[in-house]
Design goal:
CATH topology: Cathepsin D, subunit A, domain 1
Structural class: mainly beta
Largest sheet: 7 strands, mixed
Helix content: under 10%
Distance between the termini: 43 Å
CATH superfamily: Acid Proteases
Strand content: over 45%
CATH architecture: Beta Barrel
Shape: globular
Radius of gyration: 16 Å
Low-confidence stretches: 154-158
Length: 158
């Protein structure tokens, strides 16, 4: 006989497959993202990615995504790690990963974000399952913007 662990659904936060998040250390507030539990790692569109040394440690400099209503800026972060990640075409690529706070559903925690060229994608950020695990979040695949407000400017639409 198999034992199944019962879930207390009352303690879970249900989010849609499109939501708005904030990345305060990148200056990105309330922008639309695609939530994808099929993706392990969160990926952010970044331009002009370059690494450099600061105080004996590896850092990365990049330009934040161009999101309607938000200023594009140059960001500098310590490199958290480098990972081989399979892109949307199924091709493995080595990516720089940063660790920074995210705000979702009024809650704040740190997530790992890989930097890559998502310029042809509809959303500048894909929120992967590693960012959601251990935070009592489930994704409703048929709903959008359950814990945030749908953008009303010319940004990505579901």
């Amino acid at each position: 006989m198999t034992s199944k662990k019962a879930l207390d659904l009352g303690s879970l936060t249900v989010i849609g497959w499109h939501e708005c998040i904030s990345l305060p250390e990148l200056g990105l507030k309330d922008f639309a993202v695609k939530v994808d539990t099929g993706a392990k790692t969160t990926a952010l569109h970044a331009d002009d990615i370059e690494t450099f040394m600061r105080d004996g440690k590896k850092w990365v400099r990049f330009r934040s995504p161009d999101i309607p209503g938000l200023p594009q800026r140059t960001c500098e972060f310590p490199v958290f790690t480098k990972r081989d990640i399979t892109n949307t075409s199924g091709t493995p690529e080595s990516r720089i990963v940063i660790r920074t706070p995210m705000i979702l559903a009024g809650r704040r925690w740190k997530i790992d974000i890989s930097l890559t060229d998502r310029g042809t994608m509809r959303f500048p950020l894909i929120l992967g399952r590693r960012a959601l695990r251990r935070h009592k979040i489930v994704v409703h695949p048929g709903k959008s913007y359950l814990v945030s407000t749908k953008p009303n400017f010319g940004g990505p639409r579901p």
